[in-house]
Every structure is written in C-alpha cells, then in structure tokens.
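Weekly puzzle thread! Below is a chain. First person to post its structure in token form gets bragging rights.
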Amino acid sequence: MEDRPLIYKYLRHDKKFPHVWCPGCGIGILLGSLIRAIDHLGFSKDEIVLVSGIGCSGRLPVYVDFNTLHTTHGRALTFATGIKLAKPELKVIVIMGDGDATAIGGNHFIHAARRNLELTAIIVNNNIYGMTGGQYSPTTPYGQRATTAIYGSVENSFNIAQLAACAGAVFAARGTVYHVRQLDQLIEKALLKKGFGVVEVISQCHTHFGRLNKMGNHIEMMKWQRDNAVPVEKAKKMTPQEMEGKFEIGILVDREAPSYIEEYQKVRQKAKEAAAYQLTAKVEKEEKEESDRREISDRI
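Winning reply:
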C-alpha cells in the first residue's frame, strides 16, 4: 500500500475541488468512509468502478480517482449491470440518493436485488430531493414537510434496507454519517459480499429537509441520528412503542444465494455446448450426405 494520506491516493484533489456539496452535508463523510473501506480491503484504483446517477450524491464519482461513470437519473444500476456483465472481474459500486434509487430508479433497484447481481449499492438517504429544490421523496416520513408538501407529506415512506432485503438482496445494512466507524465496516462487508449488497446511509440535508422541518443545522441533525439510531440487536428486544420515531442501524440481512453472474455463466456454458453439439451434428450430417453421394456415384 502507498504510504501517503488517502486524499492523495484516491481523490482528484488537484483539479476537482472545492466540491459542490453544502457545508455540513453528510455526503463528504460517506465519501471518507468509502475510500477508507476500499483502502483497508486493498483494492487497487483500477479494480474499482464507481457509478452514480443524478442528485447530490451523483456528484461523488467526480471527486475520486477510480474508473467512474456519471449516468442518468434512476439508471445507475442499469449501467452498472452492463459493466459487471462485460467485466465481471471488476468491483462495481453504485452510489445513489433515496430519490434516484427508489423513485425513478425503483424498478431497477428491486430487480437488481431480485437477480442478486454482484453489485454494491450505497444509497444516501436524506429524506428529500436535495439538488433540485427540496421536493418530497419516497423516503420523506409521513407528515414531514417539503417544498412540494408544504402541509406535510401524506404518503408513507419506503424503508430502503428492508425493501432491499424483501426484494432478494443477500446483504442489507443501514448506517449513519454520525456512526462513522460502523459505516466504514458496513461498507467493507458489502464490498466483500458475493451478490447484491445494499448499504443505506442516513445523512442530513439541513439545507432543505432540516430547515423545512425545523430540525436545526447539520450538527443538530447529526445529534438526532445519534439519539434515534438503535443497533439491530437492541431493536429486536424493544416494543413497537419503544421504537416509535427511531430506526435500526447495523446489518439487517446477511445470507448466501447464487449470484446472477454465476448463473449467467452457466447459461453461457450451456449455450456454447449446444452450439458445439449442433455444429458437430451438422458436420456429421454433411459428411454422411457426401458419403452417400459418392456411393451412388460409384454404383453408376
């Protein structure tokens, strides 16, 4: 490993900074966790592909010195799928926001989990569309305000990690940008998982969500994460009333299942064997026809 600070090893520090995120945004904290996890696992920069869609988190690949792809809104997983199928040896990481992943990209998200594609999905959940002005998203809690829900949202919100687990993801976890060391570890485990791994990252958007819902500045919102996050093991022993207004952090699902890449390779092998069989049968048929023609010719 190179003996120099991570910012020089993995960030495009000489040409892409300062970044576009609001002061106090949690995405920068997530970025730190991501590069620490990659460094700790020993991946080289050439082994990593970082794909994103559109939104505040969609800018993250701009700042890292990996193979990167900044794609369209809600379609990051589709581009990532193509990369993984073409180059299965690469470690493909997909960065998305809650709106990017579960609204316009919701269909791709549940089917990536169902197929158990070998991708690592990191979803920044700040409960709102931050980049486009503070509209409510599929994770905006019921009753909370947004620029498109000035009297409070009347829709129930998605539980991203549980949605991933129910759709078939073999690894689903939730962390926060306050619990940084745990977040490092959750990302590491997701990167090592063979199959579709999801890490939901609870992050603050004090610019829109916090301001509209009177939650205070970024420090106050991080204190809220500290005070309302409950480890999975502890949450199992708590009643629904005790968990009211709180959320679980940690690993929700960690199981084994055949990955799509493995199953797809089996299909390719069967197709090759079928093609070889058909070719052999065709050659044998042609040889027999030629032999029959010669025999008839000799008789004449």
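Puzzle host: Confirmed. Bonus trivia for everyone else. The mean pLDDT is 94.
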